[in-house]
Design a protein that fits this description.
Number of helices: 16
Distance between the termini: 43 Å
Strand content: 25-35%
Length: about 650
């Protein structure tokens, strides 16, 4: 950030470790890693700050990635919500899109909606594209208000038909509900769909609005508590990473809970994009392997790929998000044998407590980390976070599993890693091959504590020939958080055919959307995208646009983008669905440079010049915050910006 002073801090609270990265005004980087406190994740933030020895008055900002929303949706521990829907459309959450949970598994079901059918109130009103068909009357408003006051829910989610285009009925009902709750001393919050997702598709709009209402109270409590604890220690209130890759103030994040569903993984892809741009890489696959999960992402044109939609814990959230596919496979994933006798890895994790057996913190069951220790890819001794690694403890944990498989402990450890690699490789294929992207043409940027360990095995499975292990690989998600700009996002509905939209009308719609985000101010940048599709299509692409340019130029850009992504064009018109506007600060500047050598190599290669030449596999290089395994058939060379580039040689 040009002219910025102080220290930018990013803190990533993972399932096993809490990582802190401090980027100083001159661009230099300092890192800290502590064990996560599972029962109080905010305490992990405080512990990391204390361990970093940063002077509170010198901290410019703290950016935080939180899993609060993800955990709420997974564990179903959110707020008690009542929903209001247009009469005749109260079953949307059950009907979904009428797709099967599993195409060939008739016993598989979608998770139940966040609001029970009995808690969805019908509202007798109707708006159609031509205007108001059935007005919202005072008796109807009174009926809904009385039902809500009697039930006293934590939040109310209002999703009325076509409110993305005409929100007047939602506004009327929300105003009446807020006034009634205040009169009765209720702290019930009211969430309207036209404020959360002003876009077509009733089911996705209702599901996203309900998710916002479900998560908002817990998010506010968590962020308020964290902000109080930080401010009590002299630190600024935290910024929070959104799913789209920017950060919000803690107060702003409290009003956009659904936008935090992928807060943690977005930081990793943001950090990987910084590295990709430093190396002049336009496109890359990324994988962030932590203690509990592996998160796969994609960088396109030097930026994290941001798309709409996607689900979290089976709940659709149709807001912009950095494209991430997460699987429950990480260093803490437990190895076990299923009823059919097959070796499995995950989804259950040892987490931070008790952790892998090799940590000596009470864990006894074998994990992926224990397998690495047995095979020597993770060395014994002291590690960051105050962990002491023991090979004997790791081998003891794997012995029962090896006996059940009838193999040696070493062979069982190899099988655990192979099983884990297969799970991660499937996620990489889903994000690339199933989207028409050939992974063989792309580099793999591998980071997190386990990324450099598994990178060669994953690249081998996908036929990839280049791997980038970035500088600060073990804490890259925290680095991405520290560098991420503060960003406000807005959506504006504009369902119109390109041929029917004038250049002036398009510019006015974009300007209107930008005005809703507030004053741009000094040093803030406004960017615009239009969601475009061919007439009759069921999906859209986000196309960058500048107010004032011709509508047909944007349509032509969409057609070129569509051909690039799908390989074809269609002989039909183009239409626009909505506009996305962002208002962003400049990103914080970082100086990536080659660090002082700190590593462990096989005796025949360790001549003190490892940073100056090729390292041929098999080799293990201990990095400052992770371990790099260079497999047979691969060579590694140090990069000028720090980190390593691996190339397949066979």
């Amino acid at each position: 950030m040009s002219g910025a002073s102080g220290v930018a801090v990013g803190i990533d609270v993972g399932g096993t470790f809490t990582d802190l990265v401090a980027v100083h005004a001159d661009g230099t980087v300092a890192t800290t890693k502590v064990l996560t406190v599972p029962a109080d994740r905010a305490q992990g933030v405080i512990d990391a700050l204390e361990a970093s020895a940063l002077s509170a008055p010198h901290v410019h900002h703290i950016a935080h990635g939180t899993t609060t929303v993800t955990n709420l949706l997974l564990e179903r521990r959110g707020a008690r919500v009542m929903a209001c829907a247009t009469a005749g459309f109260t079953d949307l959450l059950e009907l979904r899109r009428q797709e099967r949970a599993g195409l060939y598994d008739l016993t598989k079901h979608h998770p139940p909606p966040l609001v029970a059918p009995s808690a969805v109130l019908p509202v007798r009103e109707r708006v159609v594209p031509e205007g108001v068909l059935e007005p919202l009357t005072e008796p109807v408003i009174t009926e809904v208000v009385d039902a809500v006051v009697a039930a006293a829910p934590d939040t109310v989610a209002i999703t009325l038909l076509h409110a993305y285009a005409d929100p007047r009925h939602e506004q009327q009902l929300a105003e009446a509900l807020r006034a009634a709750c205040a009169r009765h001393g209720l702290e019930t919050d009211v969430v309207c769909s036209h404020e959360v997702l002003p876009e077509i598709r009733e089911y996705e709009r209702m599901a996203t609005t309900v998710a916002e209402a479900y998560a908002r109270p817990a998010v506010r409590r968590y962020l308020s508590s964290l902000a109080s604890r930080l401010e009590g220690a002299g630190y600024p209130a935290p910024r929070v990473m959104t799913s789209a890759g920017g950060t919000l103030t803690s107060q702003g994040a409290g009003h956009h809970a659904a936008a935090l569903a992928l807060s943690g993984p977005a930081g990793g892809v943001t950090g990987a994009a910084v590295v990709a741009r430093a190396l002049d890489l336009s496109r890359a696959l990324t994988i962030d392997i932590g203690g509990t999960s592996a998160d796969v992402g994609f960088i396109d044109d030097g930026e994290p790929l941001v798309e709409r939609g996607g689900g979290v814990a089976g709940i659709p959230i149709a807001l912009p998000r950095v494209l991430v596919d997460a699987v429950a496979a990480g260093g803490g994933s437990l190895a076990w044998i299923d009823e059919g006798g097959a070796l499995r890895s995950g989804p259950e994790s040892a987490g931070a407590l008790p952790g892998p057996a090799c940590y000596g913190r009470g864990g006894e069951r074998p994990t992926v980390t224990d397998a690495h220790v047995v095979l020597g890819t993770i060395r014994e001794g002291a590690w960051s976070g105050g962990v002491q690694i023991s090979r004997d403890r790791a081998a003891t944990s794997i012995t029962p599993l090896a006996a059940a498989l009838g193999v040696s402990v070493e062979r069982a450890a190899e099988a655990i890693l192979a099983t884990t690699d297969a799970t991660m490789a499937r996620a990489l294929r889903r994000l690339s091959v199933e989207r028409g992207i050939d992974p063989r043409d792309l580099p793999l940027i591998a980071f997190g504590g386990g990324g450099p360990l598994h990178a060669c095995g994953l690249a081998d499975r996908l036929g990839m020939r280049t791997i980038i292990v970035p500088p600060h690989a073990g804490v890259l998600s925290a680095l991405g958080l520290a560098l991420a700009p503060e960003r406000r996002e807005g959506l504006v509905s504009c369902v119109v055919a390109a041929d029917d939209w004038s250049d002036e009308a398009m510019a006015a719609r974009l300007t209107e959307g930008a005005a809703r985000l507030g004053d741009a101010g000094s040093g803030l940048t406004t960017r615009f995208w239009l969601r475009a599709r061919y007439v009759g299509q069921g999906y859209e692409l986000d196309i960058p646009v500048t107010p004032g340019e011709p509508v047909q130029a944007v349509a032509a850009r969409f057609e070129a983008r569509h051909e690039q992504r799908t390989g074809f064009r269609l002989p039909r018109g183009v239409e626009f669905i909505s506009a996305r506007i962002t208002l962003s600060s400049a990103p914080w500047a970082v100086r990536l440079e080659r660090p002082v050598w700190s590593g462990t190599l096989p005796a025949d290669q360790d001549d003190g010049r490892a940073m100056e030449r090729m390292v041929h596999g098999p080799a293990v290089i201990r990095l400052p915050d992770a371990t790099l395994h260079v497999a047979s058939g691969w060579t590694a060379r140090a990069l000028p910006i720090g980190g390593w580039q691996l190339e397949r040689t066979t």
